[in-house]
Amino acid sequence: MADRGDGAPPRYRDLPETDGGARSGWHLFGEDDSVGLLNLVTPAKAVQAAGLVRRGAVFPLDLASDFLDPPLFGRGFARRTTLVTRPGAALDDVHDNFYPQSGSQWDALAHVAFDRDRFYNGRTAADVDGGANTIDHWAARGIVTRAVVLDLAGAVDERGGPGTAVALTPADLEAAREAAGVEVTTGDVLVLHTGFLDWYATLGRAERVRISHRDALRAAGIEHTPEMAEYLWDLHVGGVVTDAPALEVWPPDHRREAWPWGFLHQVLIGQFGLAIGELWWLRDLVEDCRADGRWEAMLSSTPMNARGGIGSPANALAVK
Amino acid sequence: MADRGDGAPPRYRDLPETDGGARSGWHLFGEDDSVGLLNLVTPAKAVQAAGLVRRGAVFPLDLASDFLDPPLFGRGFARRTTLVTRPGAALDDVHDNFYPQSGSQWDALAHVAFDRDRFYNGRTAADVDGGANTIDHWAARGIVTRAVVLDLAGAVDERGGPGTAVALTPADLEAAREAAGVEVTTGDVLVLHTGFLDWYATLGRAERVRISHRDALRAAGIEHTPEMAEYLWDLHVGGVVTDAPALEVWPPDHRREAWPWGFLHQVLIGQFGLAIGELWWLRDLVEDCRADGRWEAMLSSTPMNARGGIGSPANALAVK
Amino acid sequence: MADRGDGAPPRYRDLPETDGGARSGWHLFGEDDSVGLLNLVTPAKAVQAAGLVRRGAVFPLDLASDFLDPPLFGRGFARRTTLVTRPGAALDDVHDNFYPQSGSQWDALAHVAFDRDRFYNGRTAADVDGGANTIDHWAARGIVTRAVVLDLAGAVDERGGPGTAVALTPADLEAAREAAGVEVTTGDVLVLHTGFLDWYATLGRAERVRISHRDALRAAGIEHTPEMAEYLWDLHVGGVVTDAPALEVWPPDHRREAWPWGFLHQVLIGQFGLAIGELWWLRDLVEDCRADGRWEAMLSSTPMNARGGIGSPANALAVK
Amino acid sequence: MADRGDGAPPRYRDLPETDGGARSGWHLFGEDDSVGLLNLVTPAKAVQAAGLVRRGAVFPLDLASDFLDPPLFGRGFARRTTLVTRPGAALDDVHDNFYPQSGSQWDALAHVAFDRDRFYNGRTAADVDGGANTIDHWAARGIVTRAVVLDLAGAVDERGGPGTAVALTPADLEAAREAAGVEVTTGDVLVLHTGFLDWYATLGRAERVRISHRDALRAAGIEHTPEMAEYLWDLHVGGVVTDAPALEVWPPDHRREAWPWGFLHQVLIGQFGLAIGELWWLRDLVEDCRADGRWEAMLSSTPMNARGGIGSPANALAVK
User: Which residue among A75, A97, A213 sits closest to C213, beta carbon to beta carbon?
Assistant: First the structure.
């Protein structure tokens, strides 16, 4: 890996420029890399993370399959069918219409390209079909690292709440970090609590139906700006996860003239190779952090070992 | 929980007797319990487990989705469909025919009953339909505990190999434990390596097709006996996992006259509430244990948060 | 069957009244009937229909699986997976997410109730689960009868076009019938051409995406009125099919105060037991009728023999 | 179409020879044809067929979805899920794991190749992926033609019954034809009743489970011989359908040295472009033929309009 001489990745301003004013992390981990910034999650990170386990409090971070009702983006529920192997005595089950990205999720690096046929590390859509950037590359490593939790719910509430298009800035994240009294270290996973799912849990059916449509959804999230890209890169985190439907403020701007900054996924996934997690259930973890004042935890996650997959359930635990 | 006065569960011989000469763990954790022996996986176990992380070596324990080809028991492959959201630029995917028990898996306590309409803790099939004993009860806790690894591959090989019906006895397990120089403590997960998947990986297609049929399959595993039930109970483990298709030697004996000892699942799941994991990929972990002589690890697993589900992928990591 | 003494069903005004000012066809074909007005499609109708075949021109009436793109009502495409049995030499396939009502379709009598737990012929939702009113009852008969085609596209175009909420009246249908110079006889299937699919075929992607959302869709169709119910009943047809997403003008009015006339399905299916077909591809047939001046044909259809099913592809041909 | 000068296709002995001693029907209907011998089902055939409708007796020929229990060849049941749109008042449904060839079915010309990458009319597997020889080509025509019914159940019973590997010869078919007193004309569909499904309906569960395995299945059918190929070609039928799992006696012989005559599908589909139907429910139709002595009917079928599909339910009716 090309670096600054001290083992850490280069600074954003030292990355090569690419189109649209973005900078590129391609080839930092080699021509054949399909892992991206999770390469920064080294064995040393697992040791560091295990050292954070004090009370043995375990926080599952995956939503139940029926929490989002109806599912967002019109995906439809997964259909689970119970199969009776021996009546009254032995059961199996099988799932159909199972979208690994319909609930608490990881986006594989194959999910969004920087631009047409320009996926992370220079891959084409055909390369993705051939197995580049897919979720099984993460499954083959597993993820055990330190999580740093930033509570942005207060800032979001002041500016309209998690069901509105509040754009969080680097200054907002820094303020939360300072309030938590925590440093971010290379290879951490940054956990951003916006309060979206806590708010969703309070909604009546009519409102849930309404925001299940892509066009009607509004959600708080990080801003789609070069400044945010630079801020996140320079933290040298392996991943960023959140409780909102997208990491960024929703909706994005897909017009060509807004490219690439209309939708920061294009830079974060397509150029940086950043692991992005969305719709994670963070409330229990955040309440515990508020109670004990410790905004860090061991994070353990097993991305789905689906050959060629584009996404995965979060399959994640925080342990304190 | 009723216990022996020292916080540990009762001994097998002190459990109430039930039909067929079996003993019952029902109601040990209360009338409403759907968790079973994973109740023994307490926060203290997570702390103990984290203390085992020395080098930060992470071992993903889930098979890739295409490892078993064809899938066992005629289940058919999961079908993963890539969905093109924006051509060449944004992809999603969706899975159909996804059997959570087709690869590396957990069996929920709803999987097999002691007898018709006698599921763990006295539940009927209707209770299971209503949400008793299902996988989401485990998902709501997560699993972080100490794993103890027993290498039985040598014993299996001496007696015919993992593709034959080698029945492992308590003495075999004890011998492996002593060879490893390790103690089993309450709330551990016991990890039994038979070599089945290592052997499977060497098979040609014709042989893999042949054993994919239920009737043709033969596999090593623990014996279907009261002695094995007593041995496993008295270890007071939270779960037992293996690399073979069933925890027990295959095939079981489903004839009525053989009940309940013809198929130990009926006692282990239906009466004990034991968490059973099957088809876990153990080779990398076992090779590491052989190399460093340490047969224990932190085990982390996130059962699938599927409301009402009967099973789950293992979603498991060992960390040393 | 209770009738007027001449073998035909009673007139609408002679049917018993039920709630909301509607009249009821329940029990006209017996307490156990799950077939409804398709009972009027007798063997004599098949003979009559066969007599209409002059040139042997066959008109398939089912849309291709990719015609509606994206599918309406957010259902998602069916996913067809090709399975390679022997590479390059033998293929199979399998479908997931297959909504039998996503394209050209029949609604079974289990599709919509008159009111909560009041399905056709007095059935509850539990009765439907037990097999009442389901599609297999029609599959067990097949449908071969005379089709009468009414071309309403001109009337629709004059009043806003098929993509607007044009409500067609009995007078509109009568005018089309007279223009066609055709009589409707007991047991016919009435075929109503609004031009919706012809218009849909001209739309660009953005517009197709827009109207795929339930709330944004507008479509011409018959009015939701007692007069239309009476008109259709008194024709004594076995079914009514159309090329629009619903037989009736869309959207319906689901407010309680509008019940039952806010959504005529509730009366037509729930009280009459009328076979309703939607999204049938009628353009080729209608163009042929325009050319030869004959607005009748043999209609042949095989509803899907799915045990307990709620709907079916049209599986229909017209032959002239 | 190249022909003998009288509008009929060439005789088998006049077809060009190809490998393995087979003769080829490729390009008889043009280089771009994906329809095959169903080209012989002309409008004149629909007129002829309609003329056979005397009593209006309709015979649905599709099995119910739960008739084959368990499904043959280990395919698993289709899973039909009822979706509650409005509780107690409006239902939809959706199917997963729906194999169009698991019950009464048509094999598209893409189903089996003559040899590797030699599908009907010279198409490769890639051509099939691109839409050649797929079921939608038949759906776009529909099928209305004369059916000729041959009752072979007696001959099968004499030689071991439909659950044994009875190989039917051209002489057997000729004897059945003569007994029926019927001529086969160009473009007919030949309907062969072996009694397989009638026998299947009598089996207990254990036997049905046993024969659901590919290796254990035995079934009567036409012999895999050049003589049978010549006989069927020279009838100039558009299709051949049967009530057995394969048109031919089962099992076929897939060894390379047996090619192409080890599995007549390879010649009938791959070289002739013959429409083959299997597992059709023929008992009701055959009993009617026995009763009235008329062994012909109008056949109407709508192959599934699935873009790129490899098979279809039969979606078929016979009308007399």
Answer: A213
Interface residue of C81, C95, C209 to substitute, partner B, most B CBs within 10 Å: C81
| Distances in whole angstroms, Cα of residue C19 to Cα of each of B254, C24, C114, C259 | 56, 9, 10, 10
pLDDT of residue B2: 43
Phi, psi dihedral angles at B174 (to 5 degrees): -65, -40
pLDDT, tens digit (0-9, with 9 covering 90-100), for D44-56: 999 999 999 999 9
Instruction: Please name which of D100, D228, D257 lies closest in space to residue D170, comparing C-alpha atoms.
Output: D228
Instruction: For the beta carbon of residue B5, count every other beta carbon within 10 angstroms.
Output: 6
Cβ count within 10 A of residue B171: 11
pLDDT tens digits, B16-49? 999 999 999 999 999 999 999 999 999 999 999 9
Tokens encoding B28: 């040990």
Q: What is the pLDDT of residues A174-208, one digit of tens each?
A: 999 999 999 999 999 999 999 999 999 999 999 99
Closest chain B C-alpha to A291 CA, distance in angstroms: 17
Across chain A, mean pLDDT equals 95
- In angstroms, the separation between the Cα of residue D282 and the nearest Cα of chain B is 30
Task: Say how many CB pairs under 8 Å bridge B and D.
Answer: 15
Q: Burial-class residue B89 by CB neighbours within 10 Å (0-12, 13-18, 19+).
A: buried
Nearest to B92 by CA among A242, A37, A238, A135: A135
The reported pLDDT for the residue numbered C7 is 66
Residues in chain D: 320
| Alpha-carbon span C94 to C75, nearest angstrom | 18
Structure pTM?
Answer: 0.90
Name which of D69, D79, D82, D85 to mutate to probe chain A: the one with the most chain A Cβ atoms within 10 A of its Cβ.
D79
Give the pLDDT score at A213.
86
Do the chains contact at D79 and A97, CB–CB below 8 Å?
no
Q: How far apart are CA A240 and CA A52, in angstroms?
A: 19
CA of residue A121 relative to chain centroid, distance: 19
Taking the mean position of all CA atoms in its chain, how far away is CA B280? Answer: 8
Look-up of token digits 């992928």: B313
- If interface means Cβ-Cβ distance under 8 Å, which residues of chain D face chain B? 74-76, 96-97, 213, 215
What was the pLDDT predicted at A3?
46
Domains of chain A by start residue, with CATH? 12-65+101-319 (3.50.30.50)
Cα D208 from Cα D217, distance rounded (Å): 10
Q: Name the least confident of B4-8, B316-320, D94-98.
A: B4-8
CB neighbours of D239 closer than 8 A, spacing ≥ 6?
A: D37, D38, D41, D143, D189, D190, D274, D275, D276, D277
Q: Which among D76, D213, D215 has the least Cβ separation from residue B76?
A: D76
Using a CB-CB cut-off of 8 Å, the residues of chain D touching A71 are: none
D214 confidence band (pLDDT: 50, 70, 90): confident
Which one, of A131, A147, A123, lies nearest residue A277 by Cα? A147
From chain A, the residues in CB contact with B308 under 8 A are 80, 82
* Chain C residues in contact with D86 (beta carbon < 8 A): 254
Flag whether pLDDT at B84 surpasses 50: yes
C-beta of residue A63 within 8 angstroms of C-beta of residue A281? yes
Work out the number of other CB atoms within 10 angstroms of the CB of residue D227.
11
pLDDT of C1? 43
Cβ within 8 Å, pair B129-A306:
no
